[in-house]
From TrEMBL:
The keyword Ligase appears for this protein: no
Species lineage: Eukaryota, Fungi, Dikarya, Basidiomycota, Agaricomycotina
Pathway the protein acts in: Secondary metabolite biosynthesis
Gene3D superfamilies referenced in this protein's UniProt entry, alphabetically: Cytochrome P450 (1.10.630.10)
Highest taxon listed in the record's lineage: Eukaryota
Species for this entry: Lentinus tigrinus ALCF2SS1-6
Cofactor: heme
Stored InterPro entries: Cyt_P450, Cyt_P450_CS, Cyt_P450_E_grp-I, Cyt_P450_sf, Cytochrome_P450_monoxygenase
Keyword Kinase: no
Similarity comment: family membership: Belongs to the cytochrome P450 family.
Residues binding heme: C456
UniProt protein name: Cytochrome P450
GO molecular function ontology, one term from the record: heme binding
UniProt keyword annotations, A-Z: Heme, Iron, Metal-binding, Monooxygenase, Oxidoreductase, Signal
């Protein structure tokens, strides 16, 4: 049968015939606590259980990842239950849930909005919104010395305002308004809908993979608590999108005709296109808006929050970083400029190393769930030893085989990242020679943005945004561990990796840090 051939691959004992490792993986107390020991015990590729006695391959092997993500094009799609869940999160058939040719069409339509030239134009917006956050903190938030601030909450509002303005020329007013319904709804979305689901619900959801689309389309509307929660965010978004298209739609159409390549103009033009290959339906257009809003804000806010936590844990590095930013500020002022340019930001080596190291150490997406469309052979960079002691350097698989990519474990491989990969140390990037690595990710060979045809479309957007926000924040504020209490931050697997405080889950997903203005 199809799975028998994998029995010779070693892996951890399967905890349940029904769930395989699926349930266990969602129940981790610390993201990666499953993956990291597996690499140490079995090598970079191992066998885990799937549903109902099935076997899966799990891998962190650079060559296997390269094969699956890059070289095979669309031959290793996302598991169907995963894409269908993305559809629920996007409120319709958007780019994260589309597969094959539909995805190719959508991606081609949207790509021009994410070119390097296009994104440069957003830098002033990133900076102004960052400065607005600084001002808020200075005037309203840091009212007493040693104030503990939930930095992730503030950053999520900042990045929500940014994605609204950058993509849709729309103001969410999340930084200004205390009670913004949409930003509130987003802020607990993953926690409420994805973290620690019951066994039954998880089983039911993963089984979607085997069902025909029309059945899933009915099940997607089932009245479970989790689905209702996600749909309620979608409803709020649809209201916003409706207003937005009413207000900006005709203007966007004109801009599109003049060749503007901002997201909204591109989407509106594609929506009006007569040509099937470049057309987006109404549903698709709205789903893209919702997708970009979701995929484009909390991801970046989270990454910056993890970086600030690490800088709080590493005050000496933080001080070097601040000095680097200030020195560049002098150069900038001497030129007569008032803002950093993209070149200035790219020249901040310590900052960029800290960003890379944070993406490596705290990848927001831990695992990707894929399956093979065709029979294939997966090549391995580091051979493994089978149950009978033979050396395996390639794994033949059958069409339909489930495969999990361990992005978090790849990001910790000493063979790729050098010694002490379990320590956050940005200086490692001074020693890394990317030409010696297997080409993988879109950025710095990290797989934190995934890779290949399904890689993150917004990685450059995120990078410039992180550079801009971090350079403003770190120049004006010092981040340290909270003084009022000890907060033990857990990294939890909730679809996206989210921070929770051990013993204080009632606080929700928070990143508490002590923030002090620096003179
Ligand atoms: C640090 C910030 C970010 C990280 C770590 C990140 C990470 C990722 C990852 C790992 C994927 C692949 C997911 C999968 O295959 O299931 C992805 C896809 C995606 N990301 Fe990001 N992302 C970030 C920021 C952004 C931003 C700012 C945007 C938009 C402005 C964005 C838009 C998207 C979209 C649309 C996709 C789906 C692409 C496709 O399937 O063709 N992301 N991202």
């Amino acid at each position: 049968s199809r799975y028998r051939s994998l029995k010779h691959i070693r892996g951890p004992p399967v905890p349940s015939w029904v769930f395989g490792h699926e349930y266990m993986l969602t129940r981790q107390q610390e993201a990666g606590e499953f993956d990291f020991p597996c690499v140490k015990e079995y090598g970079l590729t191992w066998r885990i259980g799937g549903l109902l006695g099935g076997d899966q391959i799990m891998t962190a092997d650079p060559k296997a990842l390269q094969h699956i993500l890059h070289k095979s094009g669309y031959n290793y799609p996302k598991r169907r239950d995963v894409s269908k869940m993305s559809e629920v999160f996007s409120g319709g058939p958007g780019i994260t849930s589309a597969i094959g040719e539909v995805h190719q069409r959508q991606r081609k339509i949207m790509n021009p909005a994410f070119s390097a030239t296009q994104l440069r134009r957003f830098l002033p917006l990133f900076q102004e919104t960052g400065l607005k956050l600084c001002e808020k903190w200075e005037k309203e938030v840091i009212t007493v010395p040693n104030k503990t601030v939930y930095v992730n909450k503030w950053l999520a509002r900042t990045t929500l305002d940014i994605i609204g303005a950058a993509a849709f020329d729309y103001s969410y007013g999340a930084l200004d308004e205390k009670e913004n319904a949409l930003s509130k709804s987003y802020s607990t979305l993953f926690l409420d809908s994805t973290l620690y689901q019951s066994k039954l619900k998880l089983f039911y959801r993963i089984m979607w993979h085997y069902l025909p689309d029309w059945v899933i389309n009915i099940l997607m509307n089932a009245p479970t608590r989790e689905l209702k929660r996600v749909r309620s965010t979608s409803r709020l978004f649809r209201e916003v999108a409706g207003n937005l298209l009413r207000e900006k739609g005709s203007e966007a159409k004109e801009k599109a005709e003049e060749g503007y390549k901002d997201v909204l103009s591109i989407l509106v033009r594609a929506n009006a296109s007569e040509e099937p290959r470049s057309r987006l339906s109404d549903k698709e257009m709205k789903a893209q808006m919702q997708t970009l809003t979701l995929a484009g804000h909390e991801t970046t806010a989270s990454s910056v929050s993890w970086m600030l936590l690490e800088l709080a844990r590493h005050p000496e590095y933080q001080a070097r970083l601040r000095a680097e930013i200030r020195a560049r500020r002098e150069v900038m002022r001497a030129r007569g400029d008032i803002r950093f340019t993209v070149e200035d930001l790219d020249s901040l080596t310590l900052l960029n190393n800290a960003i890379k190291e944070t993406l490596r150490y705290h990848p927001i997406v831990l695992n990707l769930h894929r399956y093979a469309l065709k029979d294939d052979i997966i090549p391995l960079q580091e051979p493994i030893v089978s149950t009978t002691g033979e050396v395996v350097d390639a794994i033949p698989i059958k069409a339909g085989q489930w495969i999990k990519l361990s992005l978090c474990a790849y990001n910790r491989l000493p063979s790729v990242w050098g010694e002490n990969p379990d320590v956050w140390n940005p200086d490692r990037f001074f020693r890394i020679d990317p030409t010696k690595q297997t080409k993988l990710g879109v950025y710095a060979n990290l797989v934190s943005f995934s890779g290949g045809v399904r890689s993150c479309i917004g990685w450059r957007f995120a990078l410039i945004e992180m550079q801009a926000l971090a350079s403003e924040l770190l120049e004006k504020f010092e981040f340290s561990l909270p003084k009022d209490e000890v907060y033990d931050i857990q990294r939890l697997p909730a679809g996206m990796m989210i921070p929770l405080v051990r013993g204080k889950w009632h606080l929700g997903s928070v990143m508490p840090l002590c923030v002090t203005a620096v003179p």
